[in-house]
Amino acid sequence: MLEEVQKVEFNKILSTEFVDKEISNNPFAHFVVYKLNDCVAGFVYYSLIYDRIEINQIEVLCDFRGQGIGSKLLKYIIDTNPYGITLEVNKNNKEAIGLYKKFNFKTVAIRRGYYDGVDGLLMERKYEVKDMYILGIESSCDETSCSIVKDGSKEIATVISSQIDIHKDYGGVVPEIASRNHVKNITIVIEQCLNDAEMSMDDIDAIAVTYGPGLIGSLLVGVEAAKTLSFIFNKPLIPVHHIAGHIYANSLVKEMNFPLLALVVSGGHTELVKMLGHYKFEKLGGTLDDAVGECYDKVARVIGLEYPGGPKVDVLAHKGKVTYKLPVPLKDDSYNFSFSGLKSAVINLAHNEKQRGCIIRKEDLAASFQKVAVEEIVSKTKKALENEEVKNLVVAGGVAANKGLREELLKMAKDLDIDVSFPDMKYCTDNAAMIAAAGYYAYLDGRKADLSLNSQSTDKLC
Ligand code: KG4
Ligand code: ZN
What we know:
Blueprint: H1 2-6, H2 10-13, E1 18-22, E2 29-36, E3 39-49, E4 52-60, H3 69-79, E5 84-90, H4 94-102, E6 106-115, E7 118-125, E8 133-138, E9 143-150, E10 154-162, H5 164-167, H6 175-197, E11 206-212, H7 216-233, E12 237-241, H8 242-248, E13 260-265, E14 270-277, E15 280-286, H9 292-302, H10 310-317, H11 340-355, H12 362-387, E16 392-396, H13 403-416, E17 419-421, H14 433-444
Parallel strand pairs: 4-5, 8-11, 11-12, 13-16, 16-17
Antiparallel strand pairs: 1-2, 2-3, 3-4, 5-7, 6-7, 8-9, 9-10, 13-14, 14-15
Helix pairs in contact: 6-7, 8-14, 9-10, 9-11, 9-12, 10-12, 12-13
5'-O-[(R)-(carboxyoxy)(hydroxy)phosphoryl]adenosine binds near residues 266, 397, 399 and 430.
């Protein structure tokens, strides 16, 4: 094992004190190395077997003994893993037993003759559930955001810096401009969030970050910031899928009960996802072309509303009547959606009216479009709830703010006797509170990243 540890190239791995790595040829095996002045001072070799850690070897090299390094290594394993831990120790090794007892390990069995005839003690430390403060970072599109959330459900502080005013002049998000502005904002947003929470990095237990999907340049800024914090402050780094974040915006409102159906309606996604438990996602269906939010923004543009037009179409729709006939998007038995036909129909209708010298009644067009879009989403959601026998619905993503959609989903949920949850209006669109909330459950599910974490512009939730 020491040989394997010595092979670690520290300058490639980038860490201050600890290097935490999986051993490539054994999916259960990990080691954590503690280094001093670029030398291996000690290491722990352990197996992570689903939800339990077995420490196989803990060693401090001769020259470094008596400096509390064993204690530091053990504390690191305890602080960065939400699991119970077992280990064996020679019953004559009083020093080691004393150290383990200090960390609440208890003897649970005796292994006769385990060490060349000398008994070994099997010691166990139960996982102690403690308050967990996660700092979340989100920068996948045009919002730079940082939030601190306790135990995945209680928001402590959130800061969101939106770039809408910058991008609206272009009619949509310009990726290059977005990433430059994230670079400008990221440290300010993180500092502000810690100040608002009256906390320091010492109070934070882990860093969660959106690694994808989204605009690659934008994602990179958040991911690098999170990696830097994790590196400097030795905190676990948790990668969060953006859509998981949107879904978990609901856990800031009320406890999520399973099995549940998540309806994800955002600028980039329209999906029906079934969840049998925390972080157990199963995709039932999704859009075959455009996302519904994208379609809203396009319709807004056609009728002359500023980016992001979705919320403005929603307001207008409530002032108009359904007078324009638009096609029903996808008549089939699947849980899939299609919005490009509806989008093209609105564009063509607006164009033809203009050609004929007629003025479009914007309110009526918004109302007509919203009716078809909402009906399509509600009918597919209803079908999934009925067929999948799920009694809980959570709605997620920017379009979850849509009043027309909320009204219709509430009506449907009442008819089917379904419990429905929406995120707070301010957390429908992109924010880091949802990432910190999802990060908590991702952490409990054993999802940790090391400093090689990279952003991914396209990545499936499941
Ligand atoms: O979730 P989000 O912030 O970004 C993505 O992850 O895509 O969603 C943004 C989308 C935009 O397309 C925006 O127009 C839409 O959500 N949106 C709405 C409403 N509020 C935001 N669409 C319809 N009605 C709304 N009230
Ligand atoms: Zn989003």
